């Protein structure tokens, strides 16, 4: 018997927290080198940037898909969260080190 999935509703605070948590899981473990590389790709080829970012969050998003219906609006919000987090990290000040950002 197929189980009905819930709608992920951006108005419900707990659903927004799930989406934010998914963005943090996707970016956790990212290195300074990878952040700077993604920022450079964004400047040169936004299509490539979108694909690389999507590869970062596809697995954590897949965990949400087990319970919720995910539409393109939800994915856009997740992309924006990820993008906001990535550009908010202080990668420039660590560019000469092997720093990795981890979130729990």
Describe the structure in your own words.
By secondary structure, the protein is mainly α. 62% of the residues lie in helices and 8% in strands. The chain has four helices and four strands, in the order E-H-E-H-H-E-H-E. The chain has helices at 13-27, 32-44, 46-65, 72-88; strands spanning 6-7, 30-31, 68-69, 100-101. Helix 3 (46-65) crosses helix 4. It starts with 5 loop residues before the first strand and ends with a strand. The mean pLDDT is 88.
Q: The biggest beta sheet, please?
A: 2 strands, parallel
Percent in strands: 5-15%
Give helix and strand order, one letter per element, not per position. EHEHHEHE
Mean pLDDT: 88
Shape designation: elongated
**Uncertain spans:** none
Topology:
Blueprint: E1 6-7, H1 13-27, E2 30-31, H2 32-44, H3 46-65, E3 68-69, H4 72-88, E4 100-101
Parallel strand pairs: 1-3
Antiparallel strand pairs: 2-4
Helix pairs in contact: 1-3, 1-4, 2-3, 3-4
